[in-house]
Specification:
With 278 residues, this protein is α+β, with helices and mostly antiparallel strands. The protein has two domains: 153 residues, 2-Layer Sandwich (Ribosomal Protein S5, domain 2); 109 residues, 2-Layer Sandwich (Alpha-Beta Plaits), CATH 3.30.70.890. 28% of the residues lie in helices and 28% in strands. Strands 1, 2, 3, 4, 5 and 6 form a six-stranded mixed sheet that branches. Strand 1 and strand 2 form a beta hairpin.
Amino acid sequence: MLEELVRIKSFAKVNLYLRVTGIVSNGYHTLYSIFQELDFHDILTFTPSSKFSISCNRSDLPCDDSNLCVKAYRIMKEFALTSGEWSIHLEKNVPMGAGLGGGSSNAATVLKFLNKAWGINLSEDELINIAKKISADAPFFIRGKTQIAGGIGEMLDPIRLPEQFNLLLICPKIHISTSWAYRELDLTIKKENYKFRNLFDKKRIFWELFENQFETVVFPAYPEVGRVKNELIDSGAQYSGLSGSGSTVFGVFKNKEEAQKAQKRFNSFITYITLPIF
């Protein structure tokens, strides 16, 4: 068992590609997506304690049973081989409700840390099965990096992109309801998904094939978010898209210098420049 304070980065993600393919009996939607882990991150600090507690640097983030870290902790406690407890402090940098998966990443970080700290030693596949109980995005963060996702997000196929790039994240101060976005989608429009693994074998990324189906409902309802995408393209992005159901819009640039130049055009927004984790 670990006995000292431990600080761990909890990384965000974007959806480089996203289409919703259907809906299943329990109300969950199936999708086909490319999840990309980012170097942009929160920090979780774990401190040995006589009892479990959780705190956060953001007063607007509940630290009650609704917090995904709490859910992850309590699930892992059922497997614990020791009675030792941990106090968790969450330093939140990733915007909440912005389509970057911050809460799901935090939960996955808790699962992975406690698996080691409590000597549970579950396999990655076993942790993924546990993560499914917490959120749709949490399974991805067990392995992270770049993965093609199917099903409701739990069918994951790791891949490696053939090119390096930088991302400029633009975060409008707009909350977009994920449940609303799913309800508004027209699932009668069918489109064959690309076999991205085969495309990447060509040693380049075909950015012109990427899309996010949520843009068809989000941009008409929130035109200011759509304007961010257009501005990123005008500023030289190879590709720009909504992450998840938003409201974050990202631009893909060849290098940091091009991303920094484009960043100057978005002074009225919260912005971040980050790298993908491969």
